[in-house]
Amino acid sequence: MADTPSNEPRLAPVAPSTRPVSEALLNDKWDRAISSAVIRGSLGLSFGVVFSVLLFKRRRWPALVGLGFGLGRAYEEADVAFKNGPTRSGTNGMRLVRS
Predict the structure, then answer these.
(1) Local structure of residue 2 (DSSP, 8 states)
(2) Nearest by Cα to 37 from 96, 3, 81
(3) Which band of pLDDT confidence, cut at 50, 70 and 90, is reported for residue 58?
(4) What percent of the chain is predicted at pLDDT more than 70?
(5) Judging by beta carbons within 10 Å of its beta carbon (0-12, 13-18, 19+), is residue 49 exposed, middle or buried?
(6) How far apart, in whole angstroms, are the C-alpha atoms of residue 39 and residue 73?
(7) Is the separation of the CB atoms in 69 and 41 below 8 Å?
(8) Are 70 and 40 in contact (CB under 8 A)?
(9) 3-state class of 4 per DSSP?
(10) pLDDT classification of 45: cutoffs 50, 70, 90
(11) What is the CA radius of gyration of the chain?
């Protein structure tokens, strides 16, 4: 039976994502920005807690300052990504200076 041709029309394969390319790029940037904010914010908070316990007699402000530094760095990185596009364009993360 498998050798006999069937009269059913063949369907064309569908692309895995039917979203526009620009929407996919924007979603990737948002994913990267949110994950960076979570990672950098938690790292800043943990460094703040460590410094709070070791140096500042368990005060709250070093932890909040560390959280602020982490979130600020993530915000700055996301702002650059949204304004300028991808940051790595074959330069291995090095900044090119043109005179």
Answers:
(1) T
(2) 81
(3) confident
(4) 67
(5) middle
(6) 11
(7) no
(8) yes
(9) coil
(10) very high
(11) 24
Mean pLDDT of 74-82: 90
For 1, the token pair is: 């039976």
Largest separation between any pair of C-alpha atoms in the chain? 82
Q: 60 is written with which tokens?
A: 């709250």
21 compared with 67, residue with greater pLDDT: 67
Token duo for residue 38:
């979570």
DSSP tally for the chain: helices H, then strands E: 2, 0
Report yes or no: 69 and 42 within 8 Å, Cβ to Cβ: no
pTM of the model: 0.60
